[in-house]
Structures are given as structure tokens and as C-alpha cells.
Amino acid sequence: MFKLSIVAAAIVLSVGLVGCNNDNSTQSSTDKNDNLPTLAVLNYVDPLIGTDGLGNVNPSPVTPEGMIQPSPDNWNPTNWEGKGSPSDYHHYLNQLSGFSTTHISGAGKGDLNDFAFLPYTGFHSTAVTMDKQTEISKVGYYAVDLIETKVKAELTATDRVAFQRYSFPAGADRKVKIDLQHELLEQYGNHSRSIYYKKVADNAIAGARTSNEWGQWQTVYFYAEFSEPFSGHMAYVEGKQTAATEVGLADYQGYGDKRDRVRDVVTHLNFGDGDQPITVKIAISGTSIDGAMANLQADDNGYDFDEVVADNQQQWAKVLNKFTIKGGTQADKTMFYTSLYRTYVAPFVYQDVDGKYRGMDGKVHQADADFTNYSVYSMWDTFRAAHPLKTIIDKERAIEYAHDLMNKFKTGGVLPKWELHSDYTGEMVGYPAVSVIADVMVKYPDAFTQQDFELALKAADVSANFDLTITQDWVPYKDAWNGDKRFTVMTRHGEYAEQHGYVPADAKKKPQDGGIAQDKYDELVNESVSYGLENAYYDWCIAQIAKLAGDDAQYQRYIARSQAYKPYFDLNKAEYAKYGATGFMRPKNHDGSWVNNYPSCAIDGQGDPITPLPEGCDINDAKSFDIFWPYRAEHRGQDFTEGNTWQWSWFAPHDIAGLKQTMGGEAGFLQNLDALFTANDKADTSQGDMTGYIGQFIMGNEPDHHVPYLYNWTAEPWKTQEYVDQAMKKFFHPTKAGLIGNEDVGQMSAWYIMGALGFYQVNPGAPIYTIGRPLFDEVKFDIDDGQFTITAENNSPDNIYVESVTINGKPLGNHYTFAHSEIMAGGELHFVMTNKKPTIK
């Protein structure tokens, strides 16, 4: 089954610090070939930004869209009720559990982080202290000294192979521990279902891990070769030492496989004393150990660690040099290029060098020559800005995403909404893949065939509606351990919206309790307002696909469903005057009644909470699902998703004119926007996802990322410029705690990029942009076969207002809008800035 590659004999010594901030240290490669991009731009990327606070990013030296992401994981003694456990990376933590090979950027969850390698000496094979004074994190390179063992560890990567180089103190025995269980953030439910391990040769090991958390049966295979043979080999299975060199199930089948399996394997390798570093090359695969081996054998770098760093940096320089910037501060440029860097971490290529990949059906498929399988689509986040950004600066990649998502439907039977290593996680709201597909198709219709449009419409139609029959064979997701998760992927929300015109808040209740639940799957018809609002937008996106496909019946059906946001709005100026608003989106029962209000005795005349509570005021009932108060913060499972109605009342990006009328007309729309940005920011701060407050606008989470731009649809568009400028300056900093919320696989970074460029797409699926406030004097970036330029005359930190703006010499349309085609044709978006609030519209 296994073929052994020839191990290179030569070991290259480290020749100095790779990737330091000095420009001279990174120019040697470019001197060899004038066609190589300049590396100076890499000095503006700091992978440690957001590694403290709420960003949840990691310092992996990944390649652009690289399949493998080696990075340090911390040991956190406060995790798991004080018992301690491996943790995602936080710069303030100095205990290291190991360097694992797979990571999710900025989502704050415990999936992946497979196969942790830890170099050590003597018997110190437990968590070790990182010398933070020596830690270096640059594009393509990470290094840190380990205090107790005096080992220097360095990381880099190619697209499919991680390189780890360990330099040991003179005379010390050189050892490496490989923890195949390594359950990151196990308190969130991350567990190893099955582990396989094999010693392949005296310098090579292989294995596999099947784990669960977001992904229910997420399997990764690895194959690793070391630069020297190891003289000692010791394995522990479930904590007990064994002389076996192969343990576990090599062909574990997941759900239904009743064979005995192991869930905890730790291996110790001893390379003896020596004066040379030990370099390990680790390749992964989603298909098999053979696939991982092929991925490693395709690498032609030998053990030349420094050459891999140089190649990695050249790849990133090519991506980042799409943009050239004039003006702005060092901090501005650092935030911009680091943000651009983050948007290219995922989705990443997830197939082997021979084109084999694992489909959403769990089976191995062979990719056609013109197809690429991608993974880690955090689409509830990224449909808003990260994917629209790619349609501008990476047209071919955006088109590939659309084809890939349609292929995921073909192999799995339904579109994913948060895909992870070819696994349906069922995470977050609705069916956002239709937004990603629709946006690409309306911008580049010539890139798709009639068959593509029809396939996209079929995929969207299936995914937007509940069908018990099509998933009966989804064995991996019918799991006694975690319950039936199939219908977090495809829920009944759309069905209820079509029947009632909205999703009733009591759909999950049994009829005897006053609800309309039909069966156990209705227990998942929750977050009624958030699902109802977002699904109305997604249905509008499906209508755009139907138009391209020429299916008028489906167009009419989904356009009608796209109006399902309206019944949620409670227009009651007298009731909501205390909040300064005309009304709010709020949960509604199937009989048309609103859910109960929060007890009035607990709220003052401005709608703020009274503390302490007046005597006799009982709010115990207010903890139930059936309660409404505009400030009530909810996470999941109630009526709102990670927020409250202040944020969610604005989610109808596809029908701003209709939203205006629903709110009481132009005046009501503007009144409610003003109320949002001036609301009490401390009334309820119990929800951890609600961060980055301007009033009750939340920068740190996605639901209202588009909202500052809605002032462009009012008589006071200059407030868009104010609030976008305020959000960029207040919530994005080139520091380790410089992100106000989870980075969420590129979305937070993409929002910043669009803000800095000076325009934003409020409604993905409609190829139209509106303006904000440009940050730089001039930005040029590559588009397709040309270049687009943004200039800002009289730009300065104080001149935040737009006095005038043109595109290609022409005034913008209503609401400061211009078309996607006007960017892709090349030319210039020109701003004239001022410190005065302009009166023009």
C-alpha cells in the first residue's frame, strides 16, 4: 500500500533569520530574476494582528489558499473546568501544546488542529514554555524558542506540505512527540472518533484522525518524513505503552462501523544526539494516506527549509502586489495588507496533486482537469464582503468557487452553508451559498452555460426547501452521539415562509402547546426572525439565478418569498418612541400575534433597563423564548442569531425601497438609522458575539456590516462617511488585539479592505456598489487584464466627507452607486474630500 520516497541526506543549516522586517533580507530572491515580484510589500503584513482579543486568528505560515496550515497551539490551564487542554493560539498565552497542521482562521471553534508535533529533550514531553521574546511571525515563516528544552522550532509550508525544523541544544537527545488525539477546545465538543497510526520506515510515519465538532465525521490523513532516521520509537495507545508499530483502523467507515477502534495515540521518536537540526515534512490528504504520500512526494524541495520560505514569500508577494497604495499611515497600510492576506487564507484548495478529492457524500472523486475542489466556506460571514471582494480582484477564482459549490451540491445533494473539509456542519443561518453563486453569475454571466444556470437553480431550490426524502442516505450525519444534524443544513424555515409569509416564532412548539410543530425536525425551526429575514434575501438571490436560467415560474415564486421580511416589522411610533424609533423587526406567532413584551416594570421611559429592579417586578418569565425587548441579546436557538433586533431590523439589503416603506417612509428610515447609532450601548451586553458598539450598531459581528452604508439612501449620506470612518479607526488596529470580533475566515478583513477603498456592495447578487470614505490618497489594483485606480483629492484624517465623486469622469448614480462593470472596464473612481458635511446627494 505504501511507497517510500528517497530521503535526502543533506541537512541545510539555518543561515539567518528569514522574513525579518529589514527589506534587504528579503531582496536576494528578486535579484536573481527581475520578473519576480518585489517582497517589500510583505513588511506590511503582521500575522500576529488579531491573535489576542477576539480575532481568533493564528500565525500559520500558510501559502495563499494553501491546504495545510502549520501553527502553534497553546496549552491553557484554565480550559475544561480548570483541567487544562490544548487551546487555539492566543499571543498572551505562553504554554505550547504542539504545532498542529490544520487550522480554521478566525472562527473560534475547535475543529481541525490535527496531528500535533512537539520537539523536546530529556523527558520534558508535556507543555513547554514559549519564549515570547524570540517569537517571530512573518509571511511564510514562524519561529519560537522553547524555554525548558532550549529547542528552536521553525515552521513554513508549501501548498500541501508543512515543514517544521527543530534545532536542539548541543549534546542533547533530539526527540519529537506526535499527539494524534490533540483535541483542541474539547469543552466545545471536539472529540477524536478514530485514530490510525503506522510506522512506515525508520524516517517515516503515517496516520489518520476522524474527529467531530462542527464537522461530524471529519477525517484527515497524514504522511511525514524526517530528515534523519529515528533510532527510538515508542507508542502509547489510550495511555498505555505498546510495542506495536501499527494501531487503529486504516479504513474506518464512520457511522455504523462497529469495529473496535482507538481514540488516543501518542508516539515518541528519538533521533539521538547530534549537531544537526531535525526537519520534518508533513503532507495531508482528505482521501487517503496514499494521497498524503503522493502530495509529499510531489514536493521537490528536499529538506531545504529556507528555500521553501523564499518560495512561500514569492507566492504571497504576487498576491499582495495586486495593490499599490499612496498616502495613509504605516498603521493604515499594515492593516490593509494584513487584511488582504487574511482574505486569501480560505477557501483553500482541498484536493490531492493527482486531482482526487473527497466529495460531500464522503466518497473519493476524481477532478476534471479544469476543476478545483475548495474547502472552508464560512459563507454566513463571507457572502457579505469577502466573496464580493474576490469577484473584483480575483475573477477566475470567484468563478471557480461558484462551480465548486455547484459540484458540492452534485456530490452531497444539497448546498453547504458552512463547509468544512467536505463536511456539512449545518452551522449558522439559511442557505448563503446561493448569494455567493448568484453574485458571481450576475457579474460574469458569460462564464457560465445554460446548463450551469439550470444546475445552480436546482441546487438553490433544493437547498431552500425541506425535503425529508433526499437525505435518507446521508448516513454520516445521522449520528446517535450528536443527534440528527442533517436538518440544520436544510430546515423548514423556507416552507413556513412560503405558507405564512414569514417564519412563525412558535413553529417549533407542539400543537398542544399552542404551536404548529409537525415532527421532531420542527425543533430546529428556531431563530425565526433571523432566518426569516436572511432567507428572504437568499430567496431574492435565487430569483436572480432563475432569471438567468430563464425560468419565470421560479423567478416569480422566489421574488414573492423575498418579501417575507415585511411581516416582522412592528410599525408602532407611539410604542417605540422611547427608543427614538418607529418600530422593530420582532418575532410573530403563526396566528399573527406578536410575542410578549418584556415586563414594563423593568424598563424606564427610554426603554433602558431599571437597576435595581423595583420591588415586586418579576422578570423570571422574561428569560423564556416568548419575550421581546429591543435590547435583549440572544445567541442561538431563540428568535435572533447572535444579536438583537437593533441589528437585525436592517437585514433587507435586496429591497431597501421596500424596507423604507415598511419603516414608515423616508423619514422613518432615517429616524431608525439615527436611533440605531445613538442607542444605549450598555443596555444588554450579555452576548459575547456582540462587540464593537457604536450605539447598537455592532462592528464585531456580521448581521449589520452593511448598515452604515444605508445612509446613502437617505437625505444625510454624509453619515455613512462618518460611521465608516469611525468604525475603521476605532475597531481595526495593527496590534495583537486589533480586531474587534472574530475575523471569520476573511469577512472582517474584507469589510476593512472595502471600507479603505471607499466603496461597498450592500446587496450581493446586484452588481452595484455604493461609496463610503476612502482611506488612502491613491490605490491601484489589478482587475482581470487591466487596472482600476481610486484617487482621493484633499484626503486627510480630518477630511472624512465626500465633496464630490466621479467614476471614469461621470457622476455616480442615485445613492452614490456605480456598476461592477464600471470597475472591470478599468478607469478611475475619483473622490474630492472635505472637512465639511456636504449637502449634495
Textual characterization of the structure:
- The chain is an alpha+beta fold.
- The chain is globular, with a radius of gyration of 27 Å.
- The chain starts with 27 loop residues before the first helix and ends in a 7-residue tail after the last strand.
- 24% of the residues lie in helices and 22% in strands.
- The protein contains 20 helices and 36 strands.
- It holds the Pfam family Glyco_hydro_92.
- Its EC number is 3.2.1.-.
- Residues 292-834 form the Glycosyl hydrolase family domain.
Write a compact overview of the structure shown.
The chain has 20 helices and 36 strands.
Rg, alpha carbons = 27 Å
Uncertain stretches of 5 or more adjacent residues: 1-32
Task: Give the strand content.
Answer: 15-25%
Count of DSSP E strands? 36
In whole angstroms, the N-to-C terminal distance is 69 Å
EC number: 3.2.1.-
Protein name: GH92 family glycosyl hydrolase
Pfam families: Glyco_hydro_92 (PF07971), Glyco_hydro_92N (PF17678)
GO molecular function: hydrolase activity, acting on glycosyl bonds
List the helices and strands and how they pair.
Blueprint: H1 28-32, E1 71-76, E2 85-87, E3 95-100, E4 116-120, E5 128-138, E6 141-146, E7 151-157, E8 161-167, E9 173-179, E10 191-201, E11 204-212, E12 218-226, E13 232-237, E14 240-242, E15 246-247, E16 265-273, E17 278-285, H2 289-297, H3 305-320, E18 323-326, H4 330-343, E19 348-349, E20 356-358, E21 364-366, E22 374-375, H5 379-382, H6 386-393, H7 395-412, H8 433-443, H9 450-463, E23 478-479, E24 483-484, H10 486-489, H11 493-500, H12 528-549, H13 552-561, E25 569-571, H14 573-576, E26 583-585, H15 645-648, H16 656-662, H17 666-678, E27 693-694, E28 697-698, H18 718-731, H19 747-757, E29 759-760, E30 768-771, E31 778-783, E32 786-793, E33 801-807, E34 810-811, E35 817-819, H20 820-824, E36 827-834
Parallel strand pairs: 32-36
Antiparallel strand pairs: 1-2, 1-3, 3-5, 4-9, 5-6, 6-7, 7-8, 8-17, 9-16, 10-11, 10-15, 11-12, 12-17, 13-14, 13-16, 18-31, 19-22, 20-21, 23-24, 25-26, 27-28, 29-30, 30-35, 31-32, 33-34, 33-36
